[in-house]
């Protein structure tokens, strides 16, 4: 993962920001934890300001984009964290597990270093329902990170799952992850937005251009709105994002 994000992670600080509604779900899942390790922390989104946080991130480029005053970050991987057993009250992982090289090892490490594990992730069973995949970029599902993306059943093979709750994506979500712009398709035409989504940033240039051209055409001629325009009226949408709590 570290090599990948040295290449594709250049714009994350601009397009991947903490959305307060999603943050509320994640932070509530942390419960009364006072110390938190953020695994695969990226640029630091969703790190709670009212708790002691240490970040673990393999990419120097991502660490370099963390804002001034952010919690300290250690360069390292989920599968081998440089902390003693039970060093933290909670271990947090936000939209990162699909990039790990060994899911079982990463989750075992989260369990080793913290009594409570909190995971915000996309349930892959929903991928076939996303219009961006179905109509414009079916190639997303061919990417290794997406083929290997774990669902709650996979997580439950390694952790004692206490709860798994859906987290609807707000209509005006400010965190530019893959499903963020479910009701604002024009945003996917922005190259900075594309570079901030690993599913697009990993895509071959000609495949990306083909899908973007089709989306641009169907926005201009009204085809997208004829099929999906109702989405523009919803205050939020359940796209398959969930927060899991395990102990």
Describe the structure.
- By secondary structure, the chain is α/β, with parallel strands linked by helices.
- Helices cover 33% and strands 19% of the residues.
- It has twelve helices and nine strands.
- The strands form two sheets. It has a seven-stranded mixed sheet.
- The mean pLDDT is 94.
Along the chain, the helix and strand elements come as HHHEEHEEHEHHHEEHHHHEE
The pLDDT mean sits at 94
What's the overall geometry? Answer: globular
Which parts are unreliable, with pLDDT below 50 for 5 consecutive residues or more? none
Side-by-side strand order of the widest sheet: 3-2-1-4-5-9-6
Q: What is the overall number of helices?
A: 12
Distance between the termini: 26 Å
Task: Please count the beta strands (DSSP E, at least 2 residues each).
Answer: 9
Helicity, in percent? 25-40%
Question: What share of residues are in beta strands?
Answer: 15-25%
Largest sheet: 7 strands, mixed
Radius of gyration: 18 Å
Q: Which class best fits the helix and strand makeup?
A: alpha/beta
Keywords:
alpha/beta; globular; two-stranded antiparallel sheet; 19% strand; seven-stranded mixed beta sheet; 247 residues; single chain
Q: What is the strand and helix layout of this fold?
A:
Elements: H1 2-8, H2 12-15, H3 20-29, E1 35-39, E2 52-57, H4 60-63, E3 73-75, E4 88-94, H5 103-113, E5 114-122, H6 131-136, H7 144-147, H8 152-156, E6 161-166, E7 169-170, H9 191-195, H10 198-201, H11 205-220, H12 223-228, E8 236-237, E9 241-246
Parallel strand pairs: 1-2, 1-4, 2-3, 4-5
Antiparallel strand pairs: 5-9, 6-9, 7-8
């Amino acid at each position: 993962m570290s090599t990948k994000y040295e290449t594709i992670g250049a714009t994350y600080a601009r397009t991947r920001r903490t959305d307060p509604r999603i943050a509320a779900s994640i932070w509530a899942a942390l419960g009364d934890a006072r110390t938190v390790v953020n695994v695969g922390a990226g640029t630091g989104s969703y790190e709670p300001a009212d708790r002691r946080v240490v970040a673990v991130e393999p990419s120097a480029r991502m660490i370099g984009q963390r804002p001034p005053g952010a919690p300290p970050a250690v360069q390292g991987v989920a599968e081998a964290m440089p902390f003693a057993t039970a060093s933290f009250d909670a271990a947090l992982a936000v939209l990162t597990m699909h990039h790990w090289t060994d899911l079982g090892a990463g989750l075992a490490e989260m369990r080793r270093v913290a009594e409570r594990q909190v995971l915000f992730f996309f349930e892959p069973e929903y991928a076939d329902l996303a219009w961006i995949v179905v109509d414009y970029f079916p190639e997303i599902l061919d990417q290794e990170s997406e083929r290997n993306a774990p669902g709650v059943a996979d997580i439950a093979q390694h952790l004692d799952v206490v709860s798994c709750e859906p987290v609807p994506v707000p209509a005006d979500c400010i965190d530019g992850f893959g499903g963020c712009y479910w009701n604002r398709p024009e945003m996917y035409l922005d190259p900075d937005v594309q570079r901030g989504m690993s599913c697009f940033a990993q895509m071959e240039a000609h495949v990306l251009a083909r899908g973007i051209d089709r989306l641009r055409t169907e926005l201009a001629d009204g085809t997208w709105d004829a099929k999906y325009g109702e989405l523009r009226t919803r205050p939020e949408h359940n796209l398959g994002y969930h927060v899991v709590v395990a102990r």
